Amino acid sequence: MITASLADAIAEAEKIIADAPHVRTEQDLLEGYEYLAGSIRASLQLAWAYERDFPFFVASTGPYTKLGLDNPDTLYFHAYLRDDAEYVVTGSRGTTADLSFQVLNGDYTPAASPDSLAAFDDRAFDIAEDGGFEIRFGPRRTGEPNCFTLGPGSAMLVVREVYSDWATEQRGTIRIQRIDRIGAAPPPLRLDAMTKRYGVAGKLLLSRLRTFLAFPEWHYLRLPVNTLTEPRSTPGGLATQFSSVGHYDLDDDEIMVITVPAASPDDAPYQGFQLGSMWYISLDYLNHQTSLTADQAWIDPDGKIRYVVSERDPGLANWIERTGHRRGFLQSRWQRLSRDLSPADGPEVEVFDVAELADRLPYYEEARVSPDEWSQRIAARQAAVACRMLG
């Protein structure tokens, strides 16, 4: 059976999920099995997308194929490369807050992250008045306009398209071709190649699960609980992104208030905050407000955003829903930066009893929303995600 290797990998993957060290409740386990289903789907897709001579962009994550604390505000795409070939990327710039590109020398593994060989956003190349653009990648592209060098070991091109206003910003288009293969066609499939792809899918599945169960230990879980770091350049080489990270552990009668200055659009067109589960993936951002961008958030009169992380509904615009997750990850991001951030740009964290909220939260009355207003916020999220995830 050509699928035997994948079947064996799925059985091993189920054991990885069941034995994960953070599994304590039935909810933890059920979410793990849902994560497994998305990982199987994604691994099959990635195995069939591994085409370096006739490449195409594939969605790296989505609502049902999550990994790596995926940002609810970002569409992720990637294509595979050879470091000795030349590629042309054409597209149209949408109206999203950020569009960035990154060349990696491999994929994430349980032992290490890939090296970033190049990273830039769309300010690094020319875009026509109608939004169209063409950029080229190759081993001999140094100094040419709209061209970027593929260093030794280049293996993957990652593209991130980031929304700040889900309701109004529009996605662009993008495609990639290997220049000397334009107009040609790949060879027909062979049985041995098909068997190999099923084997690759199984290996990707196991590596994916092991990697992103280990990843939080490197960057999050060694930090003091219920804190966030100062803003820092995001590990992995993203050229214009800073992040602040942490993890939480809260009782249902506890509330966490995270206060952060609202960034100037000139400094950071994108600023966002989200929660993640112990599977290191985003919480349900479609049907619950588990994340907020600066455009979505209520900004207090003093120019600060106060996120209210709570299991119980506090009746506030900036409620970040825990959705039953006592423990999880905290992540703030700033993108398309025009300057480095300092500690003064970062978050302050307080944890106290939910009964104290009205007395301790500045501008409490101004930030209140009614049940109908809250329902409208969720309806807007559902509509926006449905629109941007088409295609």
Can you walk through the features of this model?
The longest helix has 29 residues, at 191-219. A hairpin with a 7-residue loop joins strand 10 (232-233) and strand 11. It contains 5 helices and 18 strands. It has helices at residues 4-18, 26-49, 191-219, 357-360, 371-388; strands spanning 58-59, 74-80, 87-92, 98-104, 116-121, 132-138, 147-149, 156-162, 173-178, 232-233, 241-249, 254-261, 270-276, 291-293, 304-310, 319-321, 327-335, 348-353. The mean pLDDT is 94. It is α+β, with helices and mostly antiparallel strands and 391 residues long. The strands form 4 sheets. Strands 1-2-8-4-5 form a 5-stranded antiparallel sheet, covered by helices on one side. A 5-stranded antiparallel sheet has the order 10-11-17-13-14, with no helix packed on it. It has a 4-stranded mixed sheet with strand order 7-6-3-9, with no helix packed on it. Helix 1 (4-18) packs antiparallel against helix 2 (26-49), helix 1 packs parallel to helix 3 and helix 2 crosses helix 3. The protein is globular.
**Stretches with pLDDT under 50, minimum 5 residues:** none
Q: In percent terms, what proportion of residues is strand?
A: 25-35%
Helices and strands, in order, run as HHEEEEEEEEEHEEEEEEEEEHH
Helical amount among residues, as a percent range? 10-25%
Task: Give a quick precis of the structure.
The chain has 391 residues and is an alpha+beta fold. It is 23% helix and 27% strand.
Protein topology:
Blueprint: H1 4-18, H2 26-49, E1 58-59, E2 74-80, E3 87-92, E4 98-104, E5 116-121, E6 132-138, E7 147-149, E8 156-162, E9 173-178, H3 191-219, E10 232-233, E11 241-249, E12 254-261, E13 270-276, E14 291-293, E15 304-310, E16 319-321, E17 327-335, E18 348-353, H4 357-360, H5 371-388
